[in-house]
Amino acid sequence: MKSRAGCLILRNKEKRYVDHQIKELSIKCAGRDQQVSWDTAKMQISLAMQQVDPDGIVRDSDKLGWCFWDWSLELNKQAGAQGVLLYAMRSAIAIAEKLGKKQDAERMTQTYEFYKDAAIKHFYNEETGLFLSGKCRQVSYASQIWLILGGTVSPDEGLRILHNVAAHKEAVEMVTPYMRYCLRV
After folding, report:
1. Cβ partners under 8 Å of residue 57, min gap 6
2. What span, in angstroms and rounded, lies between the C-alpha atoms of 45 and 125?
3. H or E element, residue 86
4. Collapsed DSSP state (helix, strand, coil) of residue 182
5. What does DSSP assign to residue 53?
6. Neighbours of 151 (CB within 10 A)
7. What DSSP element (H or E) covers 26?
8. Pairing status of strand 25-26 against strand 124-125
9. For residue 170, with 0-12 CB atoms within 10 Å meaning exposed, 13-18 middle and 19 or more buried, which class applies?
10. Which of 33, 42, 171, 178 is the 20 to 30 A CA-CA neighbour of 23?
11. pTM of this structure
12. 3-state SS, residue 169
């Protein structure tokens, strides 16, 4: 069985790029390869978690290129980056469970729940029924899609959010084909 997690590129403190991508991780591999694959997946999550503040929220940045998954220059990426991290963590938890890495799965599940609750508290706006990103409280398709894919809301709530963003006249649109694909997932 193969698992796929989302892509997230973050700039770390040393200003090197960290490619947070677990494209396909085979959990059928045996022995050393299995451990190496899990160690790699776990390290990618760990690197992304370095960008999270003590409140469980991915830190925002005005630097171009700190996080990429859409070409829109006006897009605030904080809420979407939180969603990508949550999505990747869900995939990593499933992989850990399949590999019998119970302690890793339990630890990551606790962290995932903390980050998920923080995302709802920090980004979700009851009045608009949308996730708002950054200090500017921007509405974008990307933020809605990634936080839905990250498991912050139920499928029914996710559908309602997508209807709300479609009706929002100032929502930042998707530019890349990749983002459009994510809307279809």
Report:
1. 78, 82, 115, 118, 119, 122
2. 27
3. helix 78-98
4. helix
5. -
6. 17
7. strand 25-26
8. unpaired
9. exposed
10. 171
11. 0.79
12. coil
